[in-house]
Amino acid sequence: MKGKAFSRPWGGAIGMTLDADALRLVRCNRQGRILRRESYPLPDDAGADADRLGNFLRSALSRFCSNWRSWPLWLCACTPGQQLRFLQLQQVRGQEFSDMVYWTFRKDIPFETDKTVFDYGIHGSADNGKVNVTVCTAVTEELETLLAPFSDAGISLCGVMAPSFALCAFCEKVKPQSEGSVLVLHVSEEMASVVIWESGRVTGSRIFKTGLTTAQIRSAVQSERPIEDPAFMSVVERLVEQVDRTISAHVTAYPENRFTRIIVTGPLAQLKGVQDTLQQQLGVETVGQQGVGDASTEGLWAGAYGAALSHYEETPNFLYPVRERDALRRWARLRLLLALLLGVGALALLVLHGIIKHGNAGVKEQLTAEKAQLSAYDPEVNEEILRSFVDQVVEENRLLKQMADRWHSHAVLQALDGLTPSTVRVQQVELNMERTARRGPTLRVHGFSAGAPAQQLPVLAAYVLDLEQHALFRETTLRQVIEAEENNRRVLQFEVEVELAPLAGGGGSESEREGS
Fold first, then answer.
1. CB burial class (10 A; 0-12, 13-18, 19+) of residue 367?
2. In this structure, are strands 181-187 and 191-198 parallel, antiparallel, or unpaired?
3. Core-most of 120, 153, 186, 249, by most CB within 10 Å?
4. Of 208, 227, 191, 214, whose CA–CA distance to 78 is shortest?
5. HEC letters along 344-399
6. How far is CA 122 from the centre of its chain?
7. HEC profile for 460-490?
8. CB–CB of 163/24 below 8 Å?
9. Within 13 Å of residue 68, how many CA atoms lie on the same side as its CB?
10. What is the dihedral of CA 420, 421, 425, 431, to 10 degrees?
11. Are 275 and 292 in contact (CB under 8 A)?
């Protein structure tokens, strides 16, 4: 289920996390200031089926924001099959960098391309001149299962991001203050995400299995002393072990660094016992629900807050991964260029209209003066002189009309070139500038629609519709569509006849203008 790409209103976005115990929502404006945040506990029967969960999601969104459908919705979620790597790569330009990231990651973790979504985020330059990159993949089937309740409830998401990317956005906005390195730990069902923040930038990220289940998280949140449960304590011990390995690996790579703070986010951020255990066994100050900036950035909402800070062109997005975002950006630039060309064409037509109008005014003044002179003559008028004056006026009008037709033809051909997509080949263009009492100039286009066979007819229909909606064309008629072969491939040959719209101020038919 894909949402509305490139939709970001002036008000900002809504970020959400669907944790084991609650749905957490954060609404931010464009500057990243939190407008509202709420937590809605999951009912016991919410996980029974997708319909009940979908009803709960729609009801919670309606209570959180009455006009939530007009806001971009971003979901921070982790699927069981996610894979993540933190890489340092040389900076190269354009598509070469994306290809280098793709093949470097795939060399370490092979995956099936048609069953996996691939995306990455850039965190700036490292001290060695390379670029810090976090790469993540998600299994398409697991992603579709995660999004099924949202789709059934009619909730259109603009983006789905891994917790690691949400934590990166959270750190870049909050900028945790510390004398050394800060480790941000987001713990959710079965998976934990770690981001290392140092000197104003992300210098590491990873994910690891925790073994936590939905039932364990709910039981721990509801219990007054969850740390006394032996089963839960074993999970916490594995969590401590993995965090200790992360810290040790980072300190080994960067001996001059030292960790001075651990920030716990996610559902376990509200459990004091977990924070105390991490602090006692690792010897690093550990904070969770409090202590990160102001009260608006509490650990419980860190994932949702990071999701609300996302940007459709830059933030890694499993719905629109990097290659699709690049295609959308190229299409946006193409539309801007086409709008500029149309604007230049319209400006040229306005200038041409002004020239013709100015020329006609001069001709009318000259004709009025000549008529006044003729009226002062003796009744015995010299017809030869009068005829020469009339011929001169007719010739000047003919030249002006010829000039207008040339400008008109140029504008029509330029518009046709701009509207023709790459999969439509134009073979012959017939432009007839003759006008009649019932019909204006016509343009006849012969060509064929190439591309994928299933897309040839829709592309041709869209092409004809674009021609008919253009300001220079008045009526478009598809005269002929036949199947043919072109270079050993199937194409649709077509013939389109377009009646051109009259120039602004151009008047009626040719016979009417000559009569006047």
1. middle
2. antiparallel
3. 186
4. 191
5. HHHHHHHHHHHHHHHHHHHHHHHHHHHHHHHHHCCCCCCHHHHHHHHHHHHHHHHH
6. 18
7. HHHHHHHHHHCCCEEEEEEEEEEEEECCCCE
8. no
9. 24
10. 0
11. no
| Contact between residue 36 and residue 187 where contact means Cβ atoms under 8 Å apart | no
Distance of CA 133 to the CA centre of its chain: 21
Question: What is the Cα–Cα distance from 502 to 387, expressed in whole angstroms?
Answer: 31
Quick check: 501 and 468 in contact, CB under 8 A? Answer: no
> From CA 323, how far away is CA 218, in angstroms rounded?
38
CA–CA dist 192, 210 (Å, integer):
6
Contact between residue 187 and residue 266 where contact means Cβ atoms under 8 Å apart: yes
CB 26 within 8 A of CB 14: yes
**Both tokens of residue 194?**
């770690």
**DSSP structural state of residue 501:** P
Instruction: Identify the bridge partners of residue 36 per DSSP, sorted by sequence position.
Output: 27
* 202: its two tokens: 């992300």
Continuous H helices in 26-155: 50-64, 95-108, 140-152
Residues 6+ apart with CB under 8 A from 276: 227, 286
How far does the chain reach from its first CA to its final CA, in angstroms? 63
Nearest-angstrom CA–CA distance, 84 and 208: 9
How many whole angstroms separate alpha carbon 421 and alpha carbon 425? Answer: 8
Q: Report d(CA 466, CA 474) in Å as an integer.
A: 11
Please enumerate in sequence order all residues whose Cβ is within 8 A of that of 437, keeping only pairs 6 or more positions apart, or say none.
509, 511, 512
Token code pair at residue 228: 């006394």
Report d(CA 8, CA 97) in Å as an integer.
Answer: 27
Neighbours of 368 (CB within 10 A): 10
Kindly report the pTM of this predicted structure: 0.62
Neighbours of 350 (CB within 10 A): 11
Q: pLDDT tens digits for the chain (516 residues)?
A: 455 554 444 468 999 998 888 899 999 988 888 889 998 988 877 665 667 888 899 999 999 998 898 899 999 988 888 899 999 888 887 778 888 988 899 888 888 888 999 999 888 777 777 888 999 999 999 999 888 888 888 899 988 999 999 988 888 888 887 777 888 998 887 788 999 988 888 888 989 888 777 777 777 777 767 777 777 788 888 888 989 988 888 888 888 878 888 888 888 887 778 888 888 888 888 887 544 444 444 678 888 888 888 877 778 888 888 878 777 777 878 888 999 999 999 999 999 888 998 888 888 888 888 888 877 766 666 777 778 888 888 888 877 777 777 777 888 888 888 888 888 888 888 888 777 767 778 888 888 888 888 888 888 888 888 888 888 888 888 888 888 888 788 888 889 888 888 765 554 444 444 433
Strands 259-265, 181-187: pairing is parallel
In whole angstroms, what is the distance from residue 81 CA to residue 233 CA? 25
